[in-house]
């Protein structure tokens, strides 16, 4: 055994310890992806010392480079390095299970609630306006600060508003990536410490190929396999494969897939999205809510597995190629264009369906301004703003 292999072997642990640690994080990690990465750093790097600072930074950079939920992908990567492929699965399951169960229970409760007349329901819709507005603001500052990026963002918003639908969003993302690759060239400083290649290049290539094949084959097979659960798997796989820029971007992609299908109503969709802000763990477990609301527990399992499957294929597949990938200027420039486009797509979603569904009068607008102030200026956590909006909406209906 070489010295390099001995060092890798020293970092190996049990699948059980990975799962238990991830479960504890899944029960306590409030605050969204950026906060999750902070929790991970404290637990995995500083407390347990499973990986060092530089390896963690490189892993975070890789996961931010890929579509999908960055925090969940980082957890998958750490689980892989600690206990192999089963460790990756245990890390994902532990971190995901608490919020998936909680949102499934919320879906069951909302099915028996009177949504149309509930003041708390309107409070949740208004909270969604503030949460998404803050996400758009923060993402625009990061991904659409330059002239080309800002232009792409505005053009993307206009395009998806004029031509709504899931495939129009995919087309806009592809075009923005191509424009970015031509109009910009970005470079990153090479990392001195790389992610250990626990996956062979041949295996990585097969996993990335499977990711691409499923992205194309699932919609084609959907036309022949007339099964609601198959359609659900296709919709959520595509959403998980095309979300660049953060968990909030899953909102417009999923809304275009599930509401026109009649799987959930627009009110149910936005109420669940607000509820997802109030639970710990990854925002992508919103899929569990929609799956339960549409098809019961089978739908929860199918939707949750489908939306996270691209993350497994991409993280495990990209591990062996990370050093080469991050040195490609055109790839980085294309990613900059894609990120600018998703800002525009989220901006369009902020207007329709969120704003048009929630803000009906001046008092609603004032409510949103206060919620946005609490989020963006006073730095309240999203779950606290959602809770205040829930109670405020209920009190307003009670005494209004």
UniProtKB/TrEMBL annotation:
Major place of residence: membrane
Membrane-spanning ranges: 85-108, 120-140, 152-183, 203-224, 236-254, 274-295, 302-325, 331-351, 358-376
Protein's UniProt keywords contain Transmembrane: yes
Membrane topology term: Multi-pass membrane protein
Subcellular location: Cell membrane
Keywords, in A-Z order: Cell membrane, Membrane, Transmembrane, Transmembrane helix
Entry annotated with the keyword Transmembrane helix: yes
Pfam families to which the protein is assigned, alphabetical: Chromate_transp
PANTHER family on file: CHROMATE ION TRANSPORTER (EUROFUNG) (PTHR33567:SF3)
Family statement: Belongs to the chromate ion transporter (CHR) (TC 2.A.51) family.
The protein, known as: ChrA protein
